[in-house]
Write a structure and sequence with these properties.
Methionyl-trna Synthetase, domain 2; Isoleucyl-tRNA Synthetase, domain 2; Methionyl/Leucyl_tRNA_Synth; Rossmann fold; tRNAsynth_Ia_anticodon-bd; about 1050 residues; 6 domains
Length: about 1050
Amino acid sequence: MRTLRLHRSGCQRAWSLPPCASFSTSLRRRGGEVQTTKAQENLDTLTPKWERYWRKDESGLPQLREKAAEKAYILPMFPYPSGTLHLGHLRVYTISDVLARFKQMQGYHVLHPIGWDAFGLPAENAAIERGVHPGKWTLQNIDAMKQQMKLMGGHWDWDRELRTCDPAFYKHTQQLFLMLFERGLAYQAESLVNWDPVDETVLANEQVDANGNSWRSGAKVEKKMLRQWFLKIKEFQEPLLKDLDALAKDGMWPERVLAMQKNWIGRSEGTKLSFDIETEGESPTQLGPVEVYTTRADTLFGAEYIALSLSHPIVQSLAKEHSALQDFLVLAKDFPPDSKEGFQLPGLRAKNPVADLVNDHNISKTLPVFVAPYVLDDYGSGAVMGVPGHDARDFTFWRQPKQSISGSVEFNSPVKFVIHPEEQSLTSSETVADSRLDQPLLNKGFLVSEDGQFNGLSSDQAIGAIIGRLQEAGRLAERTENWRLRDWLISRQRYWGCPIPVVHCDDCGTVPVPRSDLPVELPDLPASFFQGQKGNPLAEDSSFKDCKCPWCKKPARRETDTMDTFMDSSWYMFRFLDSENATQLVAPEKANAGMPVDVYIGGVEHAILHLLYARFISKFLATTGVWPEGSKVLGEPFKRLITQGMVHGKTYSDPSTGRFLRPHELDLSNPSAPVIMGTEVAPKVSYEKMSKSKYNGVDPVATIAKYGADVTRAHMLFQAPVSDVLEWDEKKITGVQRWLARVLRLSQASWFPPHIQELGRFRPPHDLNVPVFDLLAHMAEWEVIKPSNAGGTDEERLLNTLDQDEMALLSATQTTIASVTKAYSETYSLNTIISDLMTLTNTIWDTPHKSARTPWFKWYATIHLLRMLAPIGPGVAEESWQRLISITNPKVRGDQQHPLRLYHKGQRPGPSIFTFGWPKADLDAVPKLNPMAKCVVQFNGKRKFQLDIRKVPLSINSNHTDRLKRYALDEMLKTEEGRKFLDREAGPLWKEAGTQEAGPDFPEIPMGMNMVVVQRCKLVNFVSPKLPKKEKEAPHARAQDAQKPTLDAGLG
C-alpha cells in the first residue's frame, strides 16, 4: 500500500453534517409528497438513446483481431426468419448479448455475430400458399426481424451478418459437399424413406411424430424407395462418442445433452447369433440363416419368436404368394415407428440355435416368425429375436394379438422368464420359469436352467458360456458391437435449399461440378410458378435440370435434390470468422484463431441433430487444411454449451371442456381472480408453451415498447435460471422496474447531503479498480480520512477510522464483484446476478450518512454496481454512468491523465461505460473488513451455543458496558440461532423469565434479565431474575472467569 502522508495535521471537518434521511424519503418533498426524478419515468427511452451514441462512438464490442489476442467467440444459434420475434428468441439473444458484453468489458476480443438460417420448407410453403417467391418472403422476414432485434438492446457484429440463402454463402456449402464427395464421404443409395405426401419431400425419422404424422404438414407419412444422397457420419462415430467425455469435463456441456447424443449414437456391445429359418412340415425347406444382434445373449434360453423387418427378403418373397401379407405390408407403411403390430409369416419357423445343445426342455426349440414394423432394416440384418420376459418392447408385442393369413391370432402361452434377479439353487422340477407377471424383468441377474452347467451363472458368465457352447458346435456366435447412428440423409425434394453440385451423365456417371463453376445457383423462378405447386420445382424446370457434363460435354442432368438445411447450420460458425472470403470457406489462420466457439447458446430441441451434425462437419474440417489446428481441440466446434429453457405463457382454458380461451372471452378486470366473460366461472390457469392455438403468446416488441429493453431483459433473466422453463408473468416486471429506477436515482449522487451544492474535496481515484486500502490511503491524502492512533499497521489505523456500516458497504461491494464475476464467467446463473445487484443497490441505498467518508464509499460502490449491471441493462447503466461521473468529476476535469476528465453535464457524453473494463474484486480486504470472533452464549452460566460475530470495533471502549451489550445483541440478531434464542414468543430467554414485559434499555431481553458481556463479547451470559442472590452471583463469577486463559482456550 502506498505510504500514507501522515504528517498532515488531520482531516478538517469540511462536512459537519447530520446524517441524511433514509433514501425512501431523501428526495425533495413538496406539499408532503415525494417528488421523483424524471429518471424513474424514462426507462423505455434509454436503449434507443444510447444505441445511437454507441453506433456513432463505436465504443461497443470490438471485432476478433490478431491470433495472439485472447478471444471470446459468443454465438447464439442463428434464427429462422419466420418474420416475428418471439420471447424464445428474446431469451436466447439476451443471454448471448449479456455474455458478449461481459467478455468485452473483461478485455477480450469478442466476436458476437448474427445471421439467418434462411433456407427451408416454411418459406416454400408460404410461397405455395401466397404466390410469392420464397426468396422475397424470406428477405422481407429478415428485414422485419432485424428491426425487432435492434429494439432489444443487443449488440451484434452486423458487418458479419450472413444468410444461408445467399449464393455467396451457399457457394461454400457446395464446396464443403465437394470436399466430402472427394473423400468418399458423400454417396447416393436407394433407401426406404419417410415420404410426406402433402409436402412431397423426404423426412428424417425425427421429423415423424409418434403417430406417424409429418412434423410440419401433419400428413400421414408413407414409406417410399428413393435414390438419396447420404453423408458418412458413421465414419466418425468413434470420435463423436468418445469425445463427449471431453465435453463433459467441468460441466462444459449439459449432462442432458450429452446423454441424448450418447443415446443417439448408440454404441452397444453384444452378440451376433444365427437362427435357421425353415418351412413347417415333415420335409422342411431351409430358407437360410437369419442373423440377429442382441445385447442380452444370456436370455437366449427364453427366446419366444423371431421378427423380421418389412423389407426383409424373406418377407418380400412370401408377400408375392399371400395377398393378406401384401395388404398388411401396405397398411404397415402408415403405422407409427413404435407400432407393435405384427403379422405371423405362414408356414415358417425358426430354430433356436442352442436348443439341441443343452439339457433344458423349457427352451422353445422352434419359434414362430413375424414381420413387425418396429424392426429396422439396418439394425443387425433386419431381424431380432424376441424375448418377452426380458425386453419391454418384446413383452408388449408378444401380448398383443397378431394378424395371419387366417385372421387375428393370439399367443396365450405364458411369458418365459429365464433370468432371476437373485442367485438361487433350483432343482430340476423348479426350473420352469413360466409366469403370469405383468411386466418383464429387464435387469441382468442369474440364469435359471435345467442344465446344471448353466444354472446359476450370472448374466455376464452366461453370455460367455452360451457363446462358447455355440462356437464348439460350429455355429455363429461372436461378440460384436452395434451402433444406432445411421448415415446422414441430406436429400430434400424441394426448391428452397442449397443445390447439390453434381451432374448425372449417362457416360461419365455422377460428376462433381468444378469449383470454378460454383455456386450452382437456384433458378429465379417467377412467383406464379409456386402457386399451388407440389413436389420439387427444380425437377420441372428444364433450364436448370438440363446441362452439359463437365467432363465429356455431352447432354447431362443436373441433380435436382437440394440439401437438408442442417447442412447450412453444420458449418456456419466457421463462416462468421471470414464472411467476406470469396474463395474459401474460411482462411485457415482465421479458423485457428477463432475456433472453437467459446460459448454456444440455443434450445435443447437441437441437442441431437444440429449439434451432432455440426460436430461431425467440424471434425471432418479438422482433418483438412481448412482448420489445421482443429485436432488440438479434438475437432469440437463448441467449447461451452448453454441450453436455455423454453418460455411458457399464462394460459386460460374452460374447466369443463378444456378449450383454450381467447383474451376477449375473459374478464381480467381483477387479474388475481379472472372469470370467463358473462359468467362467474373461474378459468383454469396454467403455464404452457406459447402458441397461437393456446392464445398465450406475448409480443416482445410490445413489452419492450411498454417497459423498455433493459427492464424486459432483466425481468426475463431474473425470473428463472437460464436452463429452466421461464413462466412469463408480466405482473412481476414492476419489481425489476423499481430496482432500475432506484439505480438511476443513485446516479444523481443523491447520497451526497442534499444541501451541499459542491462536492468539496471529492476526487475520484485514477484507478477505478483501486484496492480498498489504496482507496483509503487516497482519501487520507485528501484529508477525508484521518488515520486512527489505534492499531499498529497503516491498514489497521485506516480501518479503525471506519464505521461498521461503511466497512460492511466496502465488503459487500467486493463480495458482490466476486460472486457476479463467477456467475457471468462460470456458472451462468444470470438470475442470481440480478439478485446480488439488487442487494448491493439496497446496501448502498440504506447505508446511513455518518461522515464525509460515506459519499466516497457510496460512489466507489456505485461505479462498480453500474459496471456489473452494464451487460444486462446497458441503457440504464450508460445513462447512470454518464450522470454520475459528470456530477462527481469537477475536481479532475483539468487532469489530462485522469480517465474521468471528459464528462461535462449537459454536454456531449463522455466515453462509454463499456470502455472502462470490468471491476476486480479485492477479496484480500474482505476478511479485514469483516474481522470475526467467536462468541459463547450462556444462560445462567450454562453454555447454550457459539456464534461467529464481527469483532467489536475499537471505537467501542471496553468500559462502555451498554454499548457492548447493544453490539452483542445486534450481532446475535443477525444469526438464526441468536434470533431463536431471543424470540419473544418461543425463545428460552422469555420462557424462563415468565414475563412479556421488555427491559427498559434492551427490549430484546425480558424485564429483570441481567446481561453480562465478558472480554469484548467473547462470552455473553444471560442471568435469570428468578435465581436467588447467591445463585446469581455464581454464574456472574463464572462469567468473570472467562477472562482467564484457561477459559479462553475453550472458546474456540
